[in-house]
Each structure stands twice: as structure tokens, then as C-alpha cells.
Design a protein that fits this description.
The chain has 281 residues and is α/β, with parallel strands linked by helices. It has helices at 18-33, 52-64, 80-92, 103-113, 136-144, 155-162, 195-205, 220-231, 261-266, 271-277, and strands at residues 5-8, 37-42, 74-75, 96-99, 150-153, 166-169, 172-175, 185-187, 210-214, 237-241. It has a three-stranded parallel beta sheet with strand order 1-2-3, with helices on one face. Strands 4-5-8 form a three-stranded antiparallel beta sheet. Helix 2 links the parallel strand 2 and strand 3 (74-75). It binds glutamic acid. Glutamic acid is lined by residues 9-11, 43, 199, 213, 217.
Length: 281
């Protein structure tokens, strides 16, 4: 039997904090418990926010915690060709469309729709634009004029193709609800991918069998399941874990220095004390 494959997949856009420690340690613990493999993936598609010094800090912090992972480490920025290929497949299935609005145009459209305009599970308004209704000729004309565009999944058409979906959450079936996200962005204006597309393709490319990540990504799994079905990719098992919250009950953020692992280490914390702080052991 081939061993299960786990992965920790941080983005190098800030220093790792206690929430990342919980995630990384849980992955390693679960992998060890079943004789599985442990991978590290650097999710660095967002060139405007990712920095090499944060990537270096990720390696230092994880080594300090006592973690080990296989080499080579996969860096998403080196696999844009894989994401482009998948976009081409979805495009050929008629499931993508370009949208041209800027952030402020989208904000104005949402404001015009009123307070009842639906929001996605992360609290962001669903795409309010009309780009899906443009004709091919109109799209071609706007693109030829040099307008930047994102590529969105036509989620209504996608779910018509996939039918009802579910995923395995801690061994139990969990119904998926991709429509809750509206027409999600699969390729950003500046990058031939989005988080949803890259994470789904990479988990498949790396043969990941068990995705262990924070509860904040629970609902995102609905989008990942749609993409897996459309692109013929295997479905990993999912385990979304509790989040570490700050004193005000909010999810930790990379901009709060007080919970950064490098900061805690400088103040004399030990790997064992970090395990305790995040509620392991
Ligand atoms: N890169 C994502 C993050 O740092 C995690 C992605 C995942 O585990 O699916 O929040």
C-alpha cells in the first residue's frame, strides 16, 4: 500500500504564527501516526505580497519546531504552466469568462445592489458584474484594446456538469455548496491562477491524500471539489482543524507580531512550549 501524503502549504507573505504552528504540527503528527509522507509547499503566486525573506523564515521556523519534510519543496510560482493548461481545459468546456472590472468598480456595483446583495462564506460580496453576458465579439474587442481581465468560473454551468458534490471531512460525507461562492476568480488579472485553482492542482500533482488545514478554508473545499471533478483529479480526504484565536476572538493575522513564531522564539519560547500553547500534548 502506498503511504498517505500530507502537506503544509504556507504563503510567504508574512511570518508564521501560532496558527501555522498548529497546522504544521498536526500535519506532521498525523503523517507520523499513519506512516505517511510529509510535504511542504510554498504558495507564492501573489508576487505583490510574497517575499523571499518570509520564505527563508518559514524554513527556519519549521526546522526550529522540529519538523522535517521531503525535498524538493514545490513552489507555486514555478508551475504557472500547469495552471494555464487547466484554465485552457476549463475554457474549452465553456466554463470560464473574462471579467474586466476594477476593485473600485466592483465595490460601486455592490453598493448599488444594496445591503441584501449576497456574500460568499468569507464575507466578500458575490461578483455583481455582467461580464458573463458579453458576447464573444465584445470580449475580444475589450481584450484586444489591452484591458486586463480576471477569469471567472461560471459556477451555474459548472454545477450543471458536476451534479451535487460532497467531500470526506474527518471520515464523514460533507455536502459541498460551490454556488455559495458565486463566479469565483480562477485566474487573477496579474497571475494565471488563483488560490483555488493552484491549491487544487498542486494537491493533485503532489499526490496529496490528506489535506489538513484550518477551519477558515472549510468552505473553500466546495470550490476545490468542483475543480477536481471538472479536471478529473482525485479527491483527497479533508480535515479542517480549529483555529487559534487572539484575545478578541479573532483569527490570528500575519501582521500581529506578538504571535509570530520568530518573535516567540526570540523571547525564549521552546518548541515544546509552542506545542503546549497551541493545545497539542
Ligand atoms: N496557502 C494557504 C494559507 O497560507 C493555505 C492553503 C491550504 O492549506 O489549502 O492560508
Amino acid at each position: 500500500m502506498t503511504p498517505p501524503v500530507f502537506r503544509f502549504a504556507p504563503s510567504p507573505n508574512g511570518y508564521l504564527h501560532l496558527g501555522h504552528a498548529l497546522s504544521a504540527l498536526l500535519n506532521a503528527d498525523m503523517a507520523r501516526a499513519v506512516g505517511g509522507r510529509m510535504l511542504l509547499r510554498i504558495e507564492d503566486i501573489d508576487a505583490s505580497r510574497c517575499r523571499p525573506e518570509y520564505e527563508t523564515a518559514i524554513y527556519e521556523d519549521l526546522k526550529w519546531l522540529g519538523l522535517e519534510w521531503e525535498q524538493p519543496v514545490r513552489r507555486q510560482s514555478e508551475h504557472f504552466d500547469v495552471y494555464r493548461d487547466a484554465l485552457a481545459k476549463l475554457e474549452a468546456m465553456g466554463l470560464l469568462y473574462p471579467s474586466f472590472e476594477s476593485r473600485s468598480e466592483i465595490a460601486a456595483l455592490v453598493a448599488a445592489r444594496g445591503a441584501d446583495w449576497p456574500r460568499d462564506p468569507d464575507g466578500a460580496p458575490l461578483y455583481p458584474g455582467a461580464a458573463k453576458a458579453l458576447t464573444t465579439a465584445e470580449r475580444e474587442r475589450i481584450i484586444a484594446a489591452g484591458a486586463p481581465y480576471a477569469l471567472r468560473l461560471d459556477v451555474a454551468a459548472a454545477v450543471t456538469k458536476t451534479g451535487p458534490l460532497s467531500w470526506t471531512e474527518n471520515g464523514a460525507a460533507q455536502p459541498a455548496d460551490p454556488s455559495a461562492w458565486g463566479d469565483v476568480v480562477l485566474a487573477r488579472k496579474d497571475t494565471p491562477a488563483s488560490y483555488h485553482l493552484a491549491v487544487t492542482l498542486d494537491d493533485a500533482a503532489q499526490g496529496v491524500t490528506d489535506v489538513v488545514r484550518g477551519q477558515d478554508l472549510f468552505h473553500a473545499t466546495s470550490v476545490h471539489r468542483v475543480l477536481q471533478i471538472l479536471l478529473g483529479l482525485p479527491a483527497p480526504r479533508y480535515h479542517h482543524h480549529r483555529l487559534i484565536l487572539d484575545a478578541d476572538g479573532r483569527k490570528l493575522s500575519k501582521s500581529t507580531r506578538s504571535t509570530a513564531l520568530c518573535e516567540l522564539r526570540a523571547e525564549g519560547a521552546s518548541p515544546a512550549s509552542i506545542r503546549k500553547t497551541v493545545g497539542l500534548d
